[in-house]
Amino acid sequence: MNLTTLRLVTDICNGIFFVIQLAILAFMVWALVACLRRPDADFRYARKDKKFWSGVLLGCALVTGIVLFTPIRLPFQPFLMLGAAYGALYYLGPEEQRMGPRRSSRGRGKGSW
Fold first, then answer.
1. How do the domains of the chain map onto residue ranges?
2. What is the mean pLDDT of each run of 10 residues along the chain (113 residues)?
3. Who is most buried in 39, 67, 83, 104, counting CB within 10 A?
C-alpha cells in the first residue's frame, strides 16, 4: 500500500467514526429532552430523581460535545463516549420503564375537548 491509499482509508475511517459520534450525540440530546419534558411526579417511580438524571444526561451530552466539536483531547475518549452512551441508554431503558407511560402534567383525560 502506498501512502495515498493509506491516507484515503484513514480519512474514510475517521468520517465513519465522526458519523457514529454524531449519532451518539443525537441520542444524548434525545434522552435529555425526554427527561426534561417528563413531569416531576413520574420520577417517584424511578430510582433517582429528575435533578439527578438531568445532571447525568447533561454531563453525558457535554462530554460528547467536547469530544466532537473541540480540539481538546480528553484521556480515554472512547471509554468516555461509551460511558455517556450507556448513561442515556440506561435512562431511556430501565428508568423510563419504571416510570411507566408518560402522564399528562395537567391532569386532563384524553381527548380534544
1. 24-99
2. 86 92 91 92 88 93 87 83 91 88 62 61
3. 67
